[in-house]
Amino acid sequence: MPDAVLSAHSATTEPRLVRGLVIAIVLTLVAVLLLAPLVAVFAEALRSGLPAALGSLSQPDARSAIGLTLLVAAVTVPLNAVFGIAAAWAIARFEFRGKALLVTLIDLPFSVSPVVAGLALVLLYGTNGLLGGWLVAHDLKIVFALPGIVLATLFITFPFVARELIPVMVEQGRAEEEAALTLGASGWRAFRTVTLPNIRWALLYGVLLCNARAMGEFGAVAVVSGKIRGETTTMPIMVEMLYNEYLAVAAFSLAAALALLALVTLALKSLLEWRHADVLAATRRH
Predict the structure, then answer these.
(1) Given pLDDT bands bounded at 50, 70 and 90, which one contains residue 189?
(2) CB of 217 within 8 A of CB of 118?
(3) Is 248 exposed, middle or buried (0-12, 13-18, 19+ CB in 10 A)?
(4) By CB distance 3.0 to 4.6 Å, which of 114, 158, 250, 258 could disulfide with 56?
């Protein structure tokens, strides 16, 4: 074997003991930081038996929190999907001034604390905010109501779909779409028959991530919701309220339900990655 090959081989192959140690450390961290808390949540939820857990989930406040969480996700995810497609289309297909700024603004929610985002919405739409007087005069309620929760969730989940689609559309280029337009297809038909099929798996991947984030958001929603029991409490907020009231079974039961929703999302995400790894790999090259 040539010296260069031997050198490369020795540089990329660790001793079995080192590999085993690294794998053991990683598995230990995963077990301690991820699996153990998850197991603890389900164990506490079932501590008094399955009937007690299901009974706590059937309480009006819990049902209201579950319904509100699903409603907010049902509103924000499609809106973010539409925005993500539009943003990816504009960035990948056109050259214009401020393009880099637009990409930076899309990433802004990743760097801003959710609590800061919620406070900004309160300062803008609250009773004493910049638009508060006009909203009160027209009997429009944003903060401490459903619209404020939706706006806060939209801000937090803003980048997920767009950031999955942009690298895919940039890499695919415009050749297929231009060919369709040359053959007489309208812009909408070219998008529906060429662009959308090419990005559908990346779009679904982004939607799943967006949905998981929307259901689990706490910080921004806690600020703008006012935590009005039975009206503006989502599942994460209701978990905190129940736990602070020493209703452990109810709190952990609701937390377990939220964890189950997250696990379903994770399972769909993993299945999507497994079935379409070659397409989704493009989203990691940007």
Answers:
(1) confident
(2) no
(3) middle
(4) 250
Computed over every residue of the chain, the mean pLDDT equals 86
- Nearest CA among 191, 167, 166 for reference residue 178: 191
Concatenated DSSP letters of 138-156: TT---TTSHHHHHHHHHHH
Q: Residue type for 142, please?
A: I
pLDDT the model gives residue 198: 85
Predicted TM-score (pTM) of the model is 0.83
The residue whose two tokens read 């989502």 is 234
- DSSP per-residue letters across the chain: --HHHHHHHHHH---HHHHHHHHHHHHHHHIIIIIHHHHHHHHHHTTT-HHHHHHHHTSHHHHHHHHHHHHHHHHHHHHHHHHHHHHHHHHHH---TTHHHHHHHHTHHHHS-HHHHHHHHHHHHSTTSTTHHHHHHTT---TTSHHHHHHHHHHHHTHHHHHHHHHHHHHH-SHHHHHHHHTT--HHHHIIIIIHHHHHHHHHHHHHHHHHHHHH--HHHHHHHTT-TTTT--HHHHHHHHHHTT-HHHHHHHHHHHHHHHHHHHHHHHHHHHHTHHHHGGGG--
